[in-house]
Design a protein that fits this description.
Radius of gyration: 33 Å
Helix content: 40-55%
Strand content: 15-25%
Number of domains: 2
Order of helices and strands: HHHEEHEHHEEEHEEEEHEHEEH
Number of helices: 10
Shape: rod-shaped
Mean pLDDT: 86
CATH architecture of the largest domain: 3-Layer(aba) Sandwich
CATH topology of the largest domain: D-Maltodextrin-Binding Protein, domain 2
Low-confidence stretches: none
Number of strands: 13
CATH class of the largest domain: Alpha Beta
Distance between the termini: 56 Å
């Protein structure tokens, strides 16, 4: 049996119109075309739905039963289409966003209230992984990734680029002095990353190149942990502008070695799998976030 929505629509229109000729006008078909379509439907069902004479049509017992079911099916289909249409106009549903904790705390959380006011039907789930996480394993729709991307199975959308600064607190500098050259850093307590080698390559010009590889005295997996250590006067750190801008403006952290800075900017992307379409709720979130960044 191969009944489709057109078959149901033809049958219902014939009944509601009262005649084949009236139904043909509503359907934009010829009367003979409507008659053939009705006959094909009866053949598919292997039963008669209508008793037709030259003057009138009457539903058979099977036709009455089928009409009830056909109306219910078409009604459900129209309701489903309307639901999807509304969702397209007003994004809704679960949206799981993953980002390293510094980016989540400094670039996402401050704007959640405004986003929720704009899109109240979106259910946000926010997760933080300081290491690269598998999107499918963690049921993540989009992930914010900082630095170079290596996974070719992912779509990527560039969001922004953030400069890196070498920083220390006034308390640390008062106690240990201010380095004047990149080489002076060897005499200081340095804060850096564990299991993230690129994070320990600071964008400073020196005698041997434009990137200074440091050996941290204190290491952490999270940039936010390193920020807190720097604020507490525990050493010198190199962190992104997006997570330290307010600290710099407030004087809690001080930029160091500005004359030796290479101007390097760290790329920030949103990623999602190539085998998925970019749903509207994902698109509206990225548009909103990019505007804020």
């Amino acid at each position: 049996m191969d009944i489709n929505s057109d078959d149901l629509k033809t049958f219902i229109t014939v009944i509601d119109s009262g005649t084949l000729s009236a139904a043909s006008v509503h359907l934009g078909q010829t009367t003979s075309g409507v008659s053939r379509a009705l006959s094909r439907l009866e053949d598919k069902l292997a039963t008669s739905l209508l008793t037709r004479t030259t003057r009138r049509m009457e539903l058979t017992e099977e036709g009455t039963l089928f009409l009830e079911k056909a109306r219910a099916i078409l009604g459900a289909m129209e309701e489903a289409e309307e639901t999807i249409r509304i969702r397209r106009q007003k994004p809704a549903g679960r949206l799981c966003v993953d980002a390293a904790s510094p980016f989540m705390l400094h670039c996402v959380v401050p704007h959640v209230a405004e986003f929720r006011a704009m899109y109240p039907e979106i259910r946000l789930e926010l997760s933080s992984n300081d290491q690269i996480a598998d999107l499918i394993e963690h049921r993540t729709d989009i992930a914010i990734r900082i630095g170079a991307l290596n996974d070719s199975t992912l779509h990527a959308r560039a969001l922004t680029a953030s400069p890196l600064y070498v920083l220390a607190s006034p308390a640390y500098l008062a106690a240990h002095g201010t380095p004047r050259t990149p080489e002076d850093l060897a005499q200081h307590t340095l804060l850096g990353f564990v299991q993230y080698e690129l994070g320990n390559q600071w964008p400073l010009r020196h005698a041997n190149g434009n990137s200074l590889t440091v050996t941290p005295s204190i290491s952490a997996s999270s940039g936010e942990t390193l920020r807190q250590l720097a604020l507490a006067g525990q050493g010198i750190v190199c962190l992104a502008d997006f997570m330290t801008r307010t600290d710099i403006e407030a004087g809690r952290l001080v930029k160091l070695l500005a004359d030796d800075y290479t101007g390097y900017r760290q790329q920030i992307h949103a990623v999602y799998y190539r085998n998925t379409q970019l749903a509207q709720r994902i698109s509206c979130f990225l548009d909103f976030l990019q505007q804020k960044l």
